[in-house]
Amino acid sequence: MTPRDAPNLDEHRHIVVVGSGFGGIGLAIKLREAGFDDLVILERADDLGGTWSANTYPGCACDVPSHLYSYSFAPNPDWSRTYGTQAEILEYLRAVATERDVVRHIRFGTELLDARWDEARTRWRIETSRGALTADFLISATGLFAEAKYPSLSGLDTFAGRTFHSLHWDHDYDLTGKRIAVIGTGASAVQFVPEIQPQAAELVVFQRSAPWIMPRVDRRTSAVERRLLRRIPLLGKAIRGGWFTAIEGFGLVGFVDKRFRHPYELIGRLQLLRQVRDPDLRRALTPDYMIGCKRAIFSDAYLPALDRPNVRVVTAGIAEVRPHSIVARDGTEHAVDVIIYGTGFTPTPSAFDRFVGRDGLSMADLYHKQPQSYLGATLTGFPNFFCTLGPFGAAGNQSAIFMIESQIAYIVAALAELRRRGAHRVEVKPQVQQAFLDEMAQRSRSTVWVTGGCSSYYQTPDGRNAGLYPNWSFEYRGRTSRFDTGSYYIDHRDEVRV
Q1: Nearest Cα residue to 96 out of 75, 78, 111
Q2: Residues 188-240: pLDDT tens digits?
Q3: How far is CA 131 from the centre of its chain?
Q4: Cα–Cα distance between 18 and 15 in angstroms, integer?
């Protein structure tokens, strides 16, 4: 993929989409199907795919089965495994974008710098790294795992060895025979630790809290299976439906009743008992919070890797970093040559700072005050603005692609209705958004995400739900199946501040 020409300073587009991951590509496909062809996708990288282009660390893969982690309108019968690898998912996205003629709409190497609503002209003024343009409608399709999060560690600037984050993996650095420190035990670390463990002379994993590890049961698909899926499309739909039902069941733990957690926790404990022989290590790897409070992780390789002779798990926390070592809070010093951060991602994309609404506040300003949106797809104070996976538009118990497709359908329906009316301005009513937020707060009060005994990116610093939808995803699909025009001000600017 190569960058397209820079936008002209006087260029105006009907629709501008930010991001070319699953959200941006899906939006372009469905917008074009609905007759909206005057659109451009801004992509800061030189390739499409979003997180699946950015994350290239060893072992990178999805923790949702491939038949569900793909577009329902573009099934792939040729997945090689139950769970897609990073390379295979990226290749799938490239193929879909090429086959559906989306690539011509993408401006690669074009980073959004600023987007501000112009009330007088009823349009968005957009600055990018390659020029300026305006748009009638602006849609954020930026992913949730876009910017690396780094820990604040005393003495880190004195470290003489190599350091890098899993999001920015240094493939030129040879880990063979090195003393490696891994900081963090989130989903990325659980995937790359088993890959680098055999190369390391010593591997020290600094664990703040033990993750719940569930069986992954991944396997290669056979040629016969793939042939049947190509010949019988209904078989693929049935498999997708089966996985949807199984994964949807995690809502029982997340937001129905925490007592449903016990069977899942039993599976996790049996997995730990089966895969880790050392009883002291098992105790260190036993979570001290309810499953679901943090993201449960599916792996059959992580726990066995930690039980190898060249691996140590440190739970005492980090006191300081020295030029050639890391000192734990219990006083032990661990000599290391390289530090790899498996510390995850910032809670909000940097683009949230760059979307500025009619009152001069950015999307990030509002989020830090209180995670807010309406249906995770629109935001009061932001006319002619839509988003995918906005606050309370992501589910803790379902494939993100299912939620994204629901939001795409809602956004396209909204734009089609505005076109039918000949309308030029739309904004969700503040009282409608507030009622939605009150509902989200009420349903979140007893969820395992906020009462499960842990701290995670599921929570705001003051312990509230950071933006997960606290209800069934099929219920969400129903709510977004039509554009509810009564919830919006449409071409009535004088009513907006009522």
Answers
A1: 75
A2: 999 999 999 999 999 999 999 999 999 998 999 999 999 999 999 999 999 99
A3: 28
A4: 10
